Amino acid sequence: MSYNRMRTNHNIEDKDWELIAKSIYDEKTELATDEQFDAVQNFLQDKKEMDQLLNLTEKVDLFFDLKKYSAQDAWEKVESRIHSQALVQPTKFRKLITNPIFRIAAAVLFAALLLVSGYEVVYKPAARSQLLEISATNQVLNTFTLPDGTLVSLNSDTKLKYPKKFGRNTREVTIEGEAFFEVKPDKNKPFIIHAGKAQIKVLGTSFNVSAYPETKQVEVIVETGKVQVLNKTTETLQTNELILTPGDKGTLVYSSNSLLKTTNQNPNFLAWKTHNLTFKATSLAEVIGNLEKVYKVNIRLADSRLNGLLLTAQFNDYSLDFILKVIETTFQIDAQKVNGQYILKARS
């Protein structure tokens, strides 16, 4: 039905629009006077336009059933837009928006706008919720920038999931493995890491998270700032929250479902990323453990008596071969590589 005809038909008064709407939906009323009935019939005498209007209303009903949009909400949004332009033609629009037929047309218009702008209404939230994944297999990934500017480095065998775009209130990621975060400060949008059974929450700081599934624990060591660690599975009166500051280590132990706060005693917790190693009267067994983690190799002592040897040394981004040469010279032992594995044994 043409809008011009609706607007120029002066035989239909405001009080008759309700009768027209009811006629469209085949609703009977006994309240209509003969004069009103004649006016309505005269308005609806064009069968082609009547069929078009019926078809239009059916599409509106179908659209709202499928999309489950509220017709009232849709109308309120359209009406709001109309009122924003009321200063230009206040009288004309005030009369139009009180008419049921105009409401139907406005609802269809709003539905069309929803379809045209479907990316904003449907696809954009989906894009925000879509998770992307980066992973490091045999090598360390240094350094990756998240959508908010946060820097993250991944140790080997680590996966990080994050949204293409962070939400309005939080920045949330999920990690499996080990990573070092340098979170971009944002006091209005905390940064949240889901790591196994733990949740780590910060505003802006740098810290290391280790959450390899096979270790059955989550370890957080803070370098700068303040970090909150939560046990997401605690249902008892045990401590389920820790606040960590620089130098603190928080550990969530799965077997006991407990959170432990200690002072970090490992100067090499970040050596996997920096390759800077410090040993102060450290047993050779512990030295080997650090070298295996940093350089992704297997090292074995041929004689268990070598475990008790103590090494004091500092290596700043040196190669594994150089460090092994220092160990050989210091303790008069030999390092041999056999089938991809290093074997340390005393000289005969």
Descriptive account of the structure:
The protein is an alpha+beta fold and 348 residues long. The chain folds into 3 domains: 3-116, no CATH class; 131-263, Jelly Rolls (Sandwich); 275-346, 3-Layer(bab) Sandwich (Phage tail protein beta-alpha-beta fold). It is 35% helix and 31% strand. It is built from 11 helices and 18 strands. It has helices at residues 3-8, 17-24, 34-43, 47-67, 71-84, 90-96, 100-116, 118-129, 271-274, 284-295, 320-331, and strands at residues 131-136, 141-145, 151-154, 158-163, 171-182, 191-195, 198-202, 206-211, 217-224, 227-231, 241-244, 248-253, 258-263, 276-283, 298-301, 310-316, 333-338, 341-346. Strands 1, 2, 3, 4, 5, 6, 7, 8, 9, 10, 11, 12 and 13 form a 13-stranded mixed β-sheet that branches. It has a 3-stranded mixed β-sheet with strand order 15-18-17, with helices on one face. A two-stranded antiparallel ribbon has the order 14-16. Strand 12 and strand 13 (258-263) form a beta hairpin. Helix 4 (47-67) crosses helix 7. The longest helix has 21 residues, at 47-67.
